[in-house]
Design brief:
Elements (H helix, E strand, L loop, with lengths): L18 E6 L11 E6 L4 E6 L7 H13 L5 E8 L5 H19 L6 E8 L6 H13 L6 H7 L8 E9 L2 E10 L12 E6 L2 E2 L1 H14 L15 E6 L12 E2 L7 H21 L7 E9 L2 H13 L1 H8 L5 H9 L12 E4 L2 E5 L2 E2 L5 H8 L3 E7 L5 E8 L3 H8 L4
Parallel strand pairs: 4-5, 8-10, 9-11, 12-16
Antiparallel strand pairs: 1-2, 2-4, 3-10, 6-7, 7-8, 12-17, 13-14, 13-16, 14-15
Helix pairs in contact: 1-2, 2-3, 5-6, 7-9
Length: 415
Amino acid sequence: MPVNLSAPEASCLLPVAGVELGTARAGIRKPGRRDLLVVRFSEGTRAAAVFTRNRFCAAPVTLSREHLQTSGGELRALVINTGVANAGTGAEGVENARQVCDAVAIALGVPIPAVLPMSTGVILEHLPVERIIAAVPEAVSNLAPGHWLEAAEAIMTTDTLPKAVSRRIDVPGGTVTMTGFSKGAGMIRPNMATMLGMIATDAAIAPALLQQWVKRVADASFNRITVDGDTSTNDTFLLVSTGQDSGTGQPPVKIASDTDPGAADVLQALTDTAIQLAQAIVRDGEGATKFVTVRVEGAGTEAEASAVAYAIAHSPLVKTAFFASDPNLGRILAAIGYAGIDDLDVQNLEVWLDDVRVASQGGRDPAYREEDGSRVLAQAEFTVRVVLNRGTVATTVWTCDLSHDYVSINADYRS
């Protein structure tokens, strides 16, 4: 069961002007389930993206990069399938992704380079192109502005719940609406974004600024999570600006630079939306029973703060201790020690579990009691805080525990 996470209610997911979503049953891997999503965007929509840094990137990632460059960031459609990742499929995989985009472009009457593909599922298997193309008309006929929940459901793999979030804020010049979805539960240490994700807004954000913002939003959210330390071949995160009138009679809010009125508020709302989607991935991590915040303070640089945070968050020994509610301090201290800070003075650092200081002056804190540590770790959510006392930089990473179910889910993933 996910950790303090429930499925969003369809009524709470706000339509974004210029966005329609439709799903279909293509029979890609599991008969009878909705496994294909087509999203149509109004003319004038622009998108910016960040992709996986995995050198074995999937065919849809390769083609999306090509299409974004060719179209100059114009986006008219998105096509997403679950079940097959179309990764490790060579030139044939790229051609298969291209055929799917061609079919969607023809069905919607939009330019081919303005169609972006995404895929998720099993690696080293080819897309069932004929089945997907045959299902495109069903997805197109199902297009509607309010189908965000169905869309989030259609892209799930080992996720147990759909992940979607909305926000609406008032800024100088009008009201801005944004809604996004993501998917992911395992193979999560994005190193750029989430496995698959998109946030769309009706604000008219200048293309150059949109590209800057997508990186900032990803770095503050999807780049701060880890389930198992594995970077997927398919990671894609899109930030989409439709610039459409939301139906209020007012023109869309226009943002050309960071200094424009309301720009900071819109960026913060986009970031908060992405953080909520990213944290939902960790809360729904494969087999997760604990949601853990790892915060490193007093670092000299962002690089060393992140190194310590991820050393703790990635450690199988630490994560299994979290699962057992076992305050095994040696595992946490060992992770800090091998994080790569060669001149780290362990006599100066402190380690806290929520409000309990468990380590100081190079070892166990004199006032620490084992039962206090066990009490904290028995909670469904807690924070591991490390104070390095060597600078002013801080960073936060979100992770989960590692349970028996994680092994079972991944052992049976292809069956």
